[in-house]
Amino acid sequence: MNTLNKTLALIALASSSAAFAGTEFDTLDVDGNGAISQQEASVDAAISAKFTELDTDQNGELSKEEFSKA
């Protein structure tokens, strides 16, 4: 999936409040690399607001373990 398609998918998901009522890690990990980047997290206001706090190793992305503490 190219970058444009990923971006469009993120926009489509973000526009549906029902899709993010119970955001799951795999839903936000659009590129499937096993981590959530700040860009991927930006579609969920609650996760985005807590991103820095949750990113305990300060590597700029959330692991499943870090995300589970949200």
Automatic annotation (TrEMBL):
Stretches assigned to the EF-hand domain: 42-70
Keyword vocabulary terms for this entry: Signal
A Pfam entry, by short name: EF-hand_5
PROSITE patterns assigned to the protein according to its UniProt record, in alphabetical order: EF_HAND_1 (PS00018), EF_HAND_2 (PS50222)
Gene Ontology molecular function terms on file: calcium ion binding
Signal peptide segment: 1-21
InterPro entries according to UniProt: EF-hand-dom_pair, EF_Hand_1_Ca_BS, EF_hand_dom
Name this protein carries in UniProt: Calmodulin
